[in-house]
């Protein structure tokens, strides 16, 4: 099956995700995460890329990166190949470490840039690894106001400090969420859709001043409106909206 051609971003900024093969925890150990940071630092100046944000999870990595499309591919191929060699040697194994090619999505607007940056930093919180995004050691969240040797590019630090007056306002921003789906492993992207569908239900409940949340699912008028909102907000088919509806209804029922 031919590989799909990568889309080129008009801003030159991309959100990329490298996924461990077969959901293997290829960044499971602290020294493995540190080594991957070291590789990024080693090659970012050589390839003249700008790291705007990153987060190294246990089985995948997120990087928001500024680069020409061809350079992006060369940079990612180099860092993933070098890490794969290290990982295989360390664990006395052979074969692929990452699942196919890395995935990429274009960052085309300022609002999408900020929402994606927030999403990247919030990954460890969603995974239950930390309570606050700033507590995670292997993301860029702590680098913007720390003054220490950052992995991220100075342009990214400048953008953050222009928008946020201090660390507290930057932290507060991470507690918010927009109706957008970001590139991630399949399970995480599906969970994003479910979370948004549930928020839509709760908004309807508040707006209509219902007596209880389950009215959204039980009463035909509300149910049809809810399904339509899911389709329009998430840009999914009627069939997919029904699946999301069922999952949210079950969650609400069991809570």
TrEMBL record:
SMART domains per UniProt: Y1_Tnp
Record-linked InterPro entries: Transposase_17, Transposase_17_sf
Pfam families membership: Y1_Tnp
Residue ranges of domain Transposase IS200-like in the record: 9-123
Name under which the protein is recorded: Transposase
């Amino acid at each position: 099956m031919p590989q799909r051609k990568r889309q080129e971003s008009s801003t030159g900024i991309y959100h990329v995700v490298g996924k461990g093969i077969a959901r293997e925890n290829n960044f499971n150990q602290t020294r493995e995460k540190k080594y991957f940071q070291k590789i990024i630092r080693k090659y970012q100046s050589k390839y003249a890329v700008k790291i705007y944000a990153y987060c190294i999870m246990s089985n995948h990595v997120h990087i928001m990166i500024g680069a020409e499309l061809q350079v992006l591919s060369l940079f990612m191929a180099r860092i993933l190949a070098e890490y794969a060699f290290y990982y295989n040697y360390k664990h006395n194994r052979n074969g692929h470490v990452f699942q196919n090619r890395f995935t990429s999505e274009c960052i085309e607007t300022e609002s999408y840039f900020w929402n994606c940056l927030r999403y990247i930093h919030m990954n460890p919180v969603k995974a239950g690894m930390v309570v606050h995004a700033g507590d995670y050691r292997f993301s860029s969240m702590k680098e913007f106001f720390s003054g220490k040797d950052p992995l991220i590019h100075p342009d990214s630090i400048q953008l953050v400090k222009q928008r946020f007056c201090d660390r507290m306002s930057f932290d507060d921003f991470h507690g918010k969420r927009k109706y957008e789906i970001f590139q991630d492993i399949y399970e995480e992207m599906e969970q994003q859709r479910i979370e948004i569908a549930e928020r839509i239900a709760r908004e309807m409940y508040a707006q209509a001043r219902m007596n209880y949340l389950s009215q959204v699912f039980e009463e035909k008028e509300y149910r049809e409106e809810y399904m339509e909102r899911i389709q329009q907000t998430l840009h999914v088919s009627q069939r997919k909206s029904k699946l999301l509806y069922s999952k949210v209804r079950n969650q609400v029922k069991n809570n």
